Amino acid sequence: MKITRRTLGLMAAAMMTALPAIAVAEYPQRNITLVVPFPPGGGNDAMARIIGDAMTRQIGATVVVENKAGAGGVVGTQAVQNAKPDGYTLLLGHSGTMGINPHVYPAATYHPTRDFTPVGLISEIPLALVVNKDLPAQDVTGLIALAKEKPGELSYASSGVGTGSHMAAELFAHDAGIEVAHIPYRGSGPAMTDLLGGRIDFLFGVIPSSHAQVAAGKARALAVTGAERSPTMPDVPTMQEAGIDGYEAALIYGLLAPAGTPDDVVAKVNASLNAVLADPAVQEKLAVDGSVPRPGTPAEHRAALDADLEKWGALIRDAKIEIH
Q1: CA 134 to chain centre
Q2: Is the bond leading into 126 cis (omega within 30 degrees of zero)?
Q3: Mean pLDDT in runs of 10 for the chain (324 residues)?
């Protein structure tokens, strides 16, 4: 058969058109690194290992969790920001690193949607407003009234300045128009210990551990911070149901890649992530820390990140919160 120049040209064009499809089929060809910007052993690390293990079985490559701690999550986050945008380096990001840190850490000069490629939401973690069992406030309205009777005298604990528990309490104080004293701790464990001991009046804690103390009769839960009631504490109202209009303070978690990561690679990782989140076994493991799965598209993740950055930034500026 005689092959003309025109035939060769058409064959070349067809091959070029097929290249993107070949690239999609070939990803991934090696291990994928999932960076956790915190030390091993915490909630972020546990979530990453649950997701990484499940994605290893689903995506066709080993997902290796790597901890890069420092500066409240800034070090690991920036490591991913500066990584090659090829889909082989991913970040476990959440409200603290992506929505709060850029407003309180001078070193956190990154923007969550300009300097990263959102891949997909993993979950959200609502918190519970828990009070000392001897505090004479039976509901959120009562707590607000008590705080207004004693401006600045009631105290709340957090797991540190700029953490989710701190921001949830600041948002409550802002929306309720009350003045309360902030007592930061080095972690949620010591904060809960002092709540139970009567040394502080209330805190916003993760639902599973808060529920355990409430069930034991050692504390009382007045509300949860999500848009919906928690299946773990179905009798506890949301903050909005308790009278704080528009209040919502769930922490969002998701996977991000460096800016410029190819769309086809992002789509493949997103599809794998959503398949993992649909697995009841994965859902059960995530529920241990109170996570509610939130599968979706990269565009939905992008919108959630932008909204989170704006929301917490406005609160931080109003409350003049700084980390030195």
Answers
A1: 32
A2: no
A3: 46 46 69 97 94 96 97 96 98 97 94 98 97 96 97 96 95 97 93 96 96 96 96 96 96 98 98 98 94 97 98 95 78
308: which 2 tokens? 């989170």
Q: Which domains does the chain have, with CATH numbers?
A: 30-123+252-319 (3.40.190.150), 127-224 (3.40.190.10)
Spatial distance between the Cα atoms of 87 and 257, rounded to a whole number of angstroms:
7
Distance CA 87, CA 268 (A): 10
193-198-199 Cα angle (round to 5): 80
Percent of residues in the chain assigned helix, strand, coil, to nearest 5: 45, 20, 35
Distance CA 239, CA 297 (A): 28
Residue length, the chain?
324
Whole-model pTM over 0.85:
yes
* Nearby residues of 57 by Cβ (< 8 Å), 6 or more positions away: none
**Dihedral over alpha carbons 212, 215, 216, 221 (to 10 degrees):** 80
**Nearest 5°: phi and psi at 256?**
-130, 155
- Residue-wise DSSP of 153-187: T-EEEESSTTSHHHHHHHHHHHHHT---EEEE-SS
Query: Among candidates 72, 108, 97, 104, which has minimal Cα distance to 253?
Result: 97
The neighbouring-strand residues paired with 183 are 157
